[in-house]
Amino acid sequence: MRAQLYKIFPLGIDALTIEFGNRISAELNDKTLDLFRYFETNPFAGLIETVPAYCSLSIFYEVRSVRKNYPEFLTAFEAVQELVKTALQNLTELPKPAPRLIEIPVNFKGDFAPDLEFVAASNNLTCQKVIEIFTAQTYRVFMIGFLPAFAYLGEIDAAIGAPRKSTPRLKVPRGSVGIAGRQTGIYPFDSPGGWQIIGNTDFKLFTPENETPCALQAGDLVKFYASNR
Amino acid sequence: MSILIDKPGILTTLQDLGRNGFRRFGVNQNGVMDKIAVRLVNSLLGNDENEAVLEMHFPAAEIQFEAPTVFALGGADFAAELNQAPVENWRLYAAEKNSVLKFTNKTFGNRLYLAIKRGFKTEKWLGSASTNLKAGIGGFKGRRLQKNDRVEFNHELRMTNDEFNFKISNSLVPFYSKFPTVRCLAGAEFDLLDGQSKEKFVNENFTVTQSSDRMGFRLQGVTLYLSKPTELVSSAVNFGTIQLLPAGQLIVLMADHQTSGGYPRIAHVIPTDLPLLAQLGTNDKVAFHLISIEKAENLLMKLENDLKLLRLACKFRQLTNAFD
Questions:
Q1: B137 interfaces chain A, CB cutoff of 8 Å
Q2: Which of A59, A108, B137, B271 has its CA at a distance of 20 to 30 angstroms from the CA of residue B32?
Q3: What residues of chain B lie within 8 A of the CB of A35, using their CB?
Q4: What ipTM was predicted for this assembly?
């Protein structure tokens, strides 16, 4: 990978971020997840965890441990930066796992969908047409963030896109399926939020008892279907 | 054996040094706001540094010890009294059965820690005893402590205060102040500030506003401007990250911060100075000073060495006590 295709900068003293760009794109998200998987299988001494986002990976590490294990570098930052450069050179050799497809039932009726009419009206569509367009597509989980298990999915058809609410709701109920711009997402908890809510699911996104508490992870594919549950 | 919460205080939670390894699932670290204070009091008690403690704000809790134990306080100073006798921070105390610990006045700081020798009995969630108030899990039943809650502990310890007249040296305690200058690393978007705003960031003072909590401290000060408007897609943020909000004001992300964000990252407060910030409250002021990564790492290495020496000294002290 050529040097000018990414930037590395410190995210505090105990973390750095590798940024592949500044836009929502499957290609940049793929690169991010490739690098994420590289460090999953090739952790270094002092690595705490890596956090993939839309088009950047952040690496958290223990400064003391990295400095002890890589004494040839002046700083832990330089050492990890070098490890990243090596990783990026070796990325192409990694096999790509097939993405998981997860199907999620959504109730688009009545109180479960307080903003569906707004989304339909602002796009000159019927509610039924919005649901059809929304459920026709398979979405990618770009990243998890904001709240535990909140998945950022995209991209929705421009024909049903809608801006965030100008005044966020104080309480969006758990399970709400929302739209913001070309993104869609599901609220795992009751939470304040500004996305346009077009439905609700009882799909369990977050199971704290599980070792992997989150049903979705970056790179998964999601398909919604209409359900009255 | 347990402590009984006679009065809960405004926000009392069980926390340790934080939960690692699950940020990619949106599960943030949580944990104590002032990590150095907690590492100091746990070391003093001969505990693991990561042992769970109670984090209190003022008005703080009123606590009854239902079994004898040994405890230490650190961080903020809320004029503590054990059965009406004053209790200093950074010192070991024996609590007898049915003794009562009260906090009478907010003398300094905003977050006080109570640690007990050999620790509280906790159920860990994802490897940590910290409370995630958002998800309602971890710590004590996933929530702040309430009246009549009992927090269990592991061991009864009968000692008298004469057995350990023992205090942490002032040189190890963070240099707390109501108006600290905290050192930071420049963030990825620092260079997007216009020339004047860059200077203002390091030359002006910023005031902690009332909308500041364990998630973040919103600051009020001169308005800072980007040289051109910038939209960022969300990416990871860190404890201590200073973001620029659209209206030109700053927010510093604290222990309960979201795992990701999209506002420009102006700077990152270094971990050695985060406790100075963590002890601030409404209307306190702060100034920022930028330093290099190399210098910041060296400061951290020195702190780690000092803490290691303290741990060794406290362990050694315990050993010699055992042979008395």
A1: yes
A2: A59
A3: none
A4: 0.95
Q: Do A51 and B304 touch (CB under 8 A)?
A: no
Chain B, 213 to 252: residues with Cβ < 8 Å from chain A are: 231-241
Q: Can the peptide bond before residue A105 be classed as cis, meaning omega within 30 degrees of 0?
A: no
> CA quadruple A19, A24, A30, A33: dihedral positive or negative?
positive
Q: Where are the domains of chain A?
A: 3-93, 101-226
> B236 and A54: CB-CB below 8 Å?
no
Write down the pLDDT at residue B48.
96
The one-letter amino acid code at B213 reads D
Q: What is the pLDDT of residue B324?
A: 42
Determine the topology of domain A101-226 in CATH: Cyclophilin (2.40.100)
Indicate the fold that domain A3-93 takes in CATH.
Gyrase A; domain 2 (3.30.1360)
State which amino acid sits at residue B201.
Answer: F
State the DSSP H helix or E strand holding residue B306, giving kind and residue range, or none if neither: helix B293-323
Condensed to tens digits (0 to 9), the pLDDT of residues B37-60 reads 999 999 999 999 999 999 999 999
**By CB neighbour count within 10 A (0-12 exposed, 13-18 middle, 19+ buried), where does B301 fall?**
middle
Are residues A67 and B27, on separate chains, in Cβ contact within 8 Å? no
Match 């913001």 to its residue by tokens. Answer: A180
Choose from A7, A14, A47, A152 for mutation: most chain B CBs within 10 A.
Answer: A14
Q: Are A145 and B135 within 8 A, CB to CB? A: no
Q: Is a pLDDT exceeding 50 seen at residue A113?
A: yes
Q: Name the amino acid, one letter, at B54.
A: L
Contacts of A149 in chain B (CB under 8 A): 25-27
Only one residue has tokens 């192409």, namely A92
Q: How far apart are alpha carbons B53 and B40 in whole angstroms? A: 12
Contact A149 B26 (CB under 8 A): yes
To the nearest whole Å, the CA of B88 is away from the closest chain A CA by 32
Cβ–Cβ < 8 Å for B208, B177: no
Contacts of A114 by beta carbon, 8 Å cutoff, 6+ apart = A197
What is the secondary structure of B144-173 as a DSSP string? ---TT-EEEBS------GGGG--B--GGGS
Q: Of B172, B195, B212, which one is at a domain's C-terminal end? A: B172
Buried b (16+ CB within 10 A) or exposed e, B50-76: bbbbbbbbbbbbbbbbbbbbbbbbbbb
- Is B318 inside a domain boundary? no
Chain A: give the shortest CA distance to residue B113, in Å: 24
What distance in Å separates residue A18's CA from the closest CA in chain B?
10
* Low-confidence stretches of chain B (pLDDT beneath 70): 161-163, 319-324
Q: Which of A31, A28, A133 is nearest to A92 (CA)?
A: A31
Residue B324 lies in a domain: no
Residue B224's domain spans which residues?
181-291
Mutation to test the B interface, candidates A6, A11, A18, most B Cβ within 10 Å: A11
